[in-house]
Specification:
This protein has helices at 17-34, 58-64, 82-95, 111-118, 123-128, 130-141, 170-176, 195-208, 226-235, 250-261, 275-282; strands at residues 2-7, 38-41, 69-76, 100-105, 159-164, 179-183, 214-222, 243-245, 265-270. By secondary structure, it is of the alpha/beta class.
Length: 296
């Protein structure tokens, strides 16, 4: 069973952006030491975050670690020029071979920020054109646009992930042979159906004759302090908290989700606020890794 970490870069009341980034580097190093397979950074544009777009932070994480994969989860395709995204991640993939993930998302932010980020282009139209923009990013990275060559020519490509909460991307993922990450925390009222992954896997294998690369992402807070658990549950309103409670039962919860969704990798959004709380979740994985096999 493989695990990864998703980091939003939230700044706590007693901290600042620079301290938070240093803490993120430390967390990525700890994740590598504990055997995590990925460390992903989000793109969000709220005011209390240490970074808005993770592109400038990812080379730091890659440089301060040796083997863990690092990447975005994900680049907001409607708010970023495809050529810039392709250039950044292709170059990163060749500076740090076999270690860079490019997660792509159909997200947005407040309208006035979206207007500025799109820099004059129609950001709403960009969102509607999501799949074409993802296809363009992929084509640019793979040197399939004859008029534009991004360095290094014919170099390595990042692993491309489509992020989602529904089955709306299935046909595209099968056609373009991308990886897929299903979020369990973006829809607050209900969990996405495991049938999404079942249907994708069946159709992908039928069309491409290989297994698709799929994982799930979920949010979690680990603590034996019932007051802190209650405080996090009360405070975290904008996303679904998939797990909050004692670290003792967290591994069992994860393995149950892996069984339900039939995946062998889970990415965890660590909701710990202090360094100690973040480490409490990650230290659950100090015990030896054990294998989990998908059963048909």
């Amino acid at each position: 069973m493989n695990y990864g970490i998703l980091d939003f870069g939230s700044i706590q009341s007693n901290s600042n952006a620079i301290s938070t980034i240093h803490e993120t580097i430390e967390m990525a190093q700890l994740a590598e030491e504990l055997g995590f397979t990925r460390y992903w950074l989000s793109e969000h544009h709220e005011d209390n975050l240490a970074w808005k777009n993770p592109d400038i932070i990812l080379p730091l994480l890659a440089g301060y670690t040796q083997k863990i994969r690092v990447g975005s989860a994900g680049v907001l395709v409607g708010l970023n020029a495809p050529i810039n995204t392709a250039y950044h991640y292709k170059l990163l993939a060749n500076l740090y071979p076999s270690r860079i993930d490019l997660g792509l998302a159909k997200g947005k932010t407040e309208e006035h920020k979206s207007i500025e980020l799109a820099d004059g282009s129609d950001w709403k139209k960009n969102l509607d054109d999501y799949f074409n923009r993802v296809r363009k990013i992929k084509s640019l990275i793979n040197d399939q646009v004859s008029t534009i060559i991004l360095p290094p020519k014919q170099g390595e490509s990042p692993e491309i992930w489509v992020l989602g909460t529904s089955k709306s991307s299935i046909d595209f993922i099968i056609e373009e042979k991308t990886s897929f990450s299903l979020s369990l925390f973006h829809i607050i009222n209900e969990l996405p159906s495991p049938d999404i992954i079942k249907e994708l896997r069946e159709q992908y294998i039928l069309k491409n004759r290989v297994e698709p690369n799929i994982n799930i992402t979920l949010s979690a807070f680990c603590s034996d302090d019932e007051k802190r658990v209650a405080a996090i549950n009360e405070k975290t309103k904008h996303i679904k908290i998939n797990y909050s409670g004692s670290p003792d039962y967290f591994k069992d919860f994860l393995e149950k989700q892996a069984e339900i969704y039939q995946v062998n990798e889970i990415i965890i959004l660590n909701l710990g606020e202090t360094l100690e709380e973040k480490q409490a979740l990650m230290n659950v994985f100090k015990v030896e890794k054990h294998e989990f096999k998908i059963t048909n």
